[in-house]
Predict the 3D structure of the following.
Amino acid sequence: MTLLSDLAESEVVASEASLRRFLHGLPGVDEVGAQERAAALSTRSIKKSAKEYALDLAIRMVDLTTLEGADTPGKVRALCAKALRPDPTDPSAPPVAAVCVYSDRVPDAKEHLTGSQVKIASVATAFPSGRSPLSVKLTETREAVAAGADEVDMVIDRGAFLAGRYGQVYEEIAAIKQAAEPAHLKVILETGELATYDNVRRASWLAMLAGADFVKTSTGKVQPAATLPVTLVMLEAVRDFRAAAGRQVGVKPAGGIRTSKDAIRYLVCVNETAGPDWLSPDSFRIGASTLLNDLLMQRQKLKTGVYAGPDYFTLD
């Protein structure tokens, strides 16, 4: 019986040796091929009607984010208001998927989002470095969920992963997944520090084997953050994981996605790589703090023929 079937059918914890054997047995990523495929997808053109749908879909996929040391209750309140009604002049504009904040700001978000369809996401586990004891990470995760978080965005221990200690990373993700219940768990790989596409594929599979509901590219604090080729590799991983394990895992690129054109390129990549089953906020998110205004400007341009400036919308 393979490692994957073992994990699918029981609660056994994978051994270091079996994880290494499985992860290093995954097909290697053709770096040139991935980059050329992503470049080709980014040139696709779409018709006006499809663009209107894509802009609204992208808005519904946004995790509107503020992750700064100067975040205040007032800033979170304003962000929640924008998440609920992104364009006050146009009630047909859909709400975003979630508001993402530090764990100590979750109660502020809950105060303003309770009863709405907008989720509350909290970063945890010593974000963005991941450098704290597991006991601290578990406590932070439990406190975020107790405060009202619907989703937890954790960071993997990149040092352990790059040192080949896959069992340690697996066990930590599995423990945080359990601590986060019933919230969904997004596992941040920090792909800018993983160096190779092969590592991105291995880290994606490792996170999914340990129970991730989403795999996420980046914290947004490290460059490069999200890129189209890296996201393509992750989309291939979740597609192949569903075929093997029967469970659909979402993908969240985050960091550096600032324009509507960028967002639509990602949606094309999702459709062409993983398939239409992932074209939903349940399976694809975009972590962003500045993207939403450009989506709203492009949306207004399609509706009115007039391109509004950024000062027509509140700052994210």
About this structure: The radius of gyration is 19 Å. Residues 14-303 form a domain with the TIM Barrel fold (CATH 3.20.20.70). The chain has 13 helices and eight strands. The chain has one domain: 14-303.
